[in-house]
Inverse folding.
């Protein structure tokens, strides 16, 4: 028995030893840091020869740059989206534009010269480069107009841009260590850091800290490698240009005056007969008529004289409502934009009107950059000629973010929120044109991007009578008719219906059935609903009120509006 037990014990012992070795190997492997080094080309996403990575702030950008003869160039889209969106690429003329308060700087591609304030200046490098489908701008030139500093590095080429100023947390390296791609010893190594090297702290964690090295690596290092954590203050000496604005020393009370013919202009004296305390009138005089930027005009000097004699400034409106134009093409054409701008300023000088109201609607994302450039260019001309520039924008929604209200607020004197069309002609269901919550949310969201003194709340003098018809197949058809305040009240009287207050919308509401059983619904605009909308203007200390449109109001509204605007 003893002879048989010996081999068995040996086998068991061998198994234990092998298992122990295996376990020890796994433990060692688990706790041994990886020595794998990630390729810098891979880390920075450099796939092509001649590319340079761009690190801005604490982010590696998806765009690339170039370092040519030690001149750093950055992709135009990176400049536009991250550094300074006042740059605009004019593909029509292969020219980069930069809009200053009183001038548009022009930089032809492939040239070392640019034109500013009518003077041509030259540098010792080409400012704008085109490489295939990509456009690049020399970062030194961008820096002239932008609050940044930067450094370049090689092996691989990279451009590290600082566009963040103020307090930030930094630390020193206690002893040499490894920066890894992710937090954990198994993550690939990005690079070694040396003792006393200073890094920026991005995100401290339990065992690891996310850092930014001075040469642009964003990675993780063990906490025990960091020492002397402290706050550093980065101070900039950049002086930003001032985009001055015209601000009236009174609240704006503007009424839009829809004029569809020259003859309609002569009715102004009758149309404003009962108007009180309106200090600005905006006739719908101008419309883009063709893709080259030609405007249709209904401007009339007698109209301006009449308005001025009634203590009203005149800010004519220009729209893009013509079905004969490709608005995106117009906005993306520098020659078309300039033609519109020149016509508007020439008309302002000829007819002595005081301001311009831009009402471009249904703007696509493809037209957005050109639209903002148009407003900036027009602001230059208005600023130089003392003309008030105002713009109409819809209530902010996710799908209108490209209207770039922040940019509009920087260069325009006033921004009108069109606080109506919550439900509109063609809506699939009946509803209010402008509920109180719709109006207030529009104001609140606009104020996140635009100063209150520039914001003018647009309110409606109209409503819609909705008709819902049930079809034979059980489906419903919804139609509506726009009507002014008096017509809406008359409709209720004709149908012997009384409205009741709807707290949800902040309006009086009524419904009744037609002769064929169809359902009629209406949310009224009256003194009660307008009072609550006007209270918002006072509560948020806005720049004023604008009403759409003259002729749809009940005369009682003028004293009410004056109470809140004076």
């Amino acid at each position: 028995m003893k002879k048989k037990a010996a081999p068995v014990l040996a086998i068991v012992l061998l198994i234990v030893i092998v298992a122990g070795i295996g376990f020890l190997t796994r433990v060692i492997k688990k706790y041994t840091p990886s020595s794998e080094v990630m390729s810098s080309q891979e880390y920075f996403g450099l796939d092509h020869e001649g590319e340079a990575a761009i690190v801005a702030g604490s982010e590696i950008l998806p765009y690339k740059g170039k370092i040519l003869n030690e001149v750093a160039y950055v992709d135009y889209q990176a400049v536009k989206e991250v550094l300074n969106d006042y740059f605009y690429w004019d593909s029509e003329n292969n020219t980069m534009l930069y809009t200053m308060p009183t001038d548009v700087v022009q930089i032809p591609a492939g040239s070392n010269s640019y034109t500013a304030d009518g003077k041509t200046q030259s540098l010792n490098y080409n400012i704008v480069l085109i490489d295939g489908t990509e456009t690049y701008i020399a970062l030194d030139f961008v820096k002239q107009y932008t609050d940044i500093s930067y450094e370049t590095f090689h092996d691989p080429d990279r451009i590290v841009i600082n566009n963040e100023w103020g307090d930030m947390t930094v630390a020193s390296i206690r002893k040499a260590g490894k920066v890894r791609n992710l937090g954990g010893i198994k993550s690939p190594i990005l690079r070694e850091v040396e003792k006393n090297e200073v890094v920026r702290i991005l995100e401290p964690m339990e065992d690891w800290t996310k850092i930014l090295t001075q040469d642009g690596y964003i990675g993780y290092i063990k906490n025990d490698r960091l020492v002397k954590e402290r706050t550093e203050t980065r101070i900039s000496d950049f002086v930003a240009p001032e985009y001055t604005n015209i601000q009236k020393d009174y609240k704006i009370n503007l009424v839009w005056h829809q004029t569809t013919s020259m003859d309609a202009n002569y009715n102004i004296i009758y149309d404003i007969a009962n108007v009180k305390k309106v200090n600005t009138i905006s006739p719908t005089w101008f419309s883009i008529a063709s893709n080259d930027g030609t405007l249709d005009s209904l401007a009339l000097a007698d109209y301006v004289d009449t308005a001025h004699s009634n203590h009203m400034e005149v800010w004519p409106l220009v729209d893009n409502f013509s079905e004969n134009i490709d608005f995106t093409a117009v906005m993306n054409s520098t020659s078309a934009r300039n033609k519109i701008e020149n016509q508007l300023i020439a008309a302002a000088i000829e007819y002595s009107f005081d301001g311009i109201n831009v009402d471009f609607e249904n703007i696509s994302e493809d037209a957005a950059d050109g639209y903002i450039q148009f407003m900036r260019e027009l602001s230059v001309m208005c600023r130089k000629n003392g003309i008030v520039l105002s713009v109409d924008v819809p209530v902010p929604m996710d799908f209108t973010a490209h209207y770039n209200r922040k940019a509009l607020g920087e260069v325009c004197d006033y921004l009108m929120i069109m606080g109506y069309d919550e439900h509109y002609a063609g809506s699939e269901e009946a509803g209010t044109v402008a509920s109180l919550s719709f109006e207030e949310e529009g104001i609140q969201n606009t104020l996140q991007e635009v100063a209150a003194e520039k914001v003018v709340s647009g309110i409606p003098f109209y409503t819609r009578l909705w008709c819902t018809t049930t079809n034979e197949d059980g489906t419903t058809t919804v139609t509506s008719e726009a009507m002014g305040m008096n017509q809406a009240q008359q409709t209720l009287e004709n149908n012997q219906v009384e409205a009741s207050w709807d707290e949800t919308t902040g309006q009086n509401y009524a419904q009744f059935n037609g002769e064929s059983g169809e359902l009629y619904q209406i949310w009224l605009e009256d003194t009660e609903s307008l009072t609550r909308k006007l209270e918002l203007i006072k509560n948020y200390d806005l720049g004023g009120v604008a009403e759409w449109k003259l002729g749809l109001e009940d005369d009682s509204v003028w004293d009410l509006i004056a109470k809140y605007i004076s």
User: Anything to note?
Assistant: The first helix runs from residue 2 to 31. The domain at 252-461+526-565 is CATH 3.20.20.80 (TIM Barrel).
